[in-house]
Write a structure and sequence with these properties.
Elements lengths: L1 E6 L2 E3 L5 E9 L1 E12 L6 E6 L5 E3 L7 E6 L4 E6 L8 E11 L6 E4 L3 E5 L2
Parallel strand pairs: 2-11
Antiparallel strand pairs: 1-3, 3-8, 4-5, 4-9, 5-6, 7-8, 9-10, 9-11
């Protein structure tokens, strides 16, 4: 069984910073893409950023230049450094990863339970 657990959310003032972490654990053979999504109240879940197994990042236009995604393959962990936060960034942030577990034949997607980020003065 595989688990993804996010941490690092909280309340921050506009212009502030937060760093989210997401650690995968369990019978992991390999992790391919790792992603951060977010979902604001009343809105659809949207992709914020993803990073390949080789470390190449990609960002939504709304966060380019403010957010940085990175990963530590030895720790099966992905990070999201969020700077210059705006009230519009308020959402539940979810980690998602394509994971190949031992005893299976392919990658499948796993989700974390989410962590709340609130940007407000």
């Amino acid at each position: 069984q595989v688990q993804l657990v996010e941490s690092g959310g909280g309340l921050v003032q506009p212009g502030g910073s937060l760093r989210l972490s997401c650690a995968a654990s369990g019978s992991i053979f390999s992790i391919n893409y790792m992603r951060w999504f977010r979902q604001a109240p009343g809105k659809q879940r949207e992709l914020v950023a993803h990073i390949t197994s080789g470390g190449s990042p990609n960002y939504a236009d709304s966060v380019k230049g403010r957010f940085t995604i990175s990963r530590d393959n030895a720790k099966n962990t992905v990070y999201l450094q969020m700077n210059s936060l705006k009230p519009a960034d308020t959402a539940v942030y979810y980690c998602n990863a394509d994971i190949w577990t031992q005893g299976t034949l392919s990658y499948r997607g796993y989700w974390g339970p989410g962590t709340q980020v609130t940007v407000s003065s």
